[in-house]
Amino acid sequence: MAVIRSISGLRATLGDGLTPELIANYSSAFAKLLPKGKIIVGRDGRPSGKWIEKIVIGSLLSCGREVVSLGVVPTPTVQLFVEKSDAVGGIIITASHNPEQWNGLKFLNKDGVFLDEFENKDLWRILDDKDFLFETSNKFSDVEIEKTAINSHINTILNLNIFKKSNILNILKERKLKIVVDAVNSSGSVAITSLLATLGCEVIPLFCDGTGIFPHTPEPIPENLTELANYVKANNADLGVAVDPDADRLVLIDEFGDPFGEEKTITLATQCVLENPEYFDFVDSPTVVVNLSTTRMVDDIALMYGGRVVRSAVGEINVVKKMKEVGAIIGGEGSGGVILPEAHYGRDSLVGTALILSLIALKDASLRELSKQLPEYTMLKFKKEFQGELSQIIEKIIKEFSDAEIIRQDGIKINLTDGWVQLRASNTEPIVRVISEAVDDEKAKYLANRVLNLI
Fold first, then answer.
1. What is the CATH number of the domain that holds 220?
2. Which residues are known catalytic residues?
């Protein structure tokens, strides 16, 4: 049985961990946590989401709550809808990039951002004590069905200054980029293809049928995107777009069918913002926030435009809180997540797509050409099944790297002048992750192996 609760919400496996009782209890606890008002519910395309949605909505109604259902929509669409409405919170039924046997719940507060450490502790206390509050008056609201959320999301993007105050939209419509889309048949199927069509692109849907039946392992990493890469080449497309099941992560394939690298998503989005200050609300010394596992390319790009990078622990809410604290102009995570406060405070593949296509238009360049202009690093990512405490391993790592800068904010990160390596426990899977980045392959492998050998 696999049940994981963390700052990223609830994730569990079908058939054992993810039971109707667990879903009902979480939904009832969330209803007790929030003040009076509407609760927004959306889900990714997984077939299991259909029965989970009924339990979530039924549980909220039994607690006397008003519910607005968005149906199958991206996670950032729910976040944006909550933030821009008078809702007091939201639930997204998704297990993000986890395989099909998983599903789960993500919880939003009234600002449309995920619950932080303290809000989660309150939720878990209510849950563990089963301190629920059910309606006794026999007065229950009807579920409100909202079908315009994706269109509203796209309109929010088109109303960004970079489109309103420039001719980028006209440039894109004239260029008619040919783009292949792999949405793993999930919640990005309509949203991403609709956005691209609005931006004047010729859209070639690969896996966009909205059934939620994944055609491959859903995490958008190179080894899972071979069909997309082949489709880009076969159709002479300008690029390929891949998103995970709840469409908060964006990964690209260049015009030659080569993986662009998920870390380059936030790097190019950052470049777009910092290179075009007239369209964004900053004058000088802009601040960018990324997590401790994100590439140093972001630091190099920020330095190039007189900015600075501040780092947070991994986890979207950790990045968002730090962004609000320091007044960041853009932020995100190297896994393909872009957060643009001008749109909303959430990782958003639609926003990331719009920013990167804007950069392509402004520089009259291809994705490969933009990639060649970026600093060169090698990043390696490993994961191992792990149960237990990391403290003993961390102590070994500290002794192994006694002469390096040691950061203990999220697991442990070793910073060197020519590279870094990090060990941390996953928020979403029963594994540990080891990530290394260096100026060349040999150094990156050397750093990773020094840590892997200690696990």
1. 3.40.120.10
2. 96
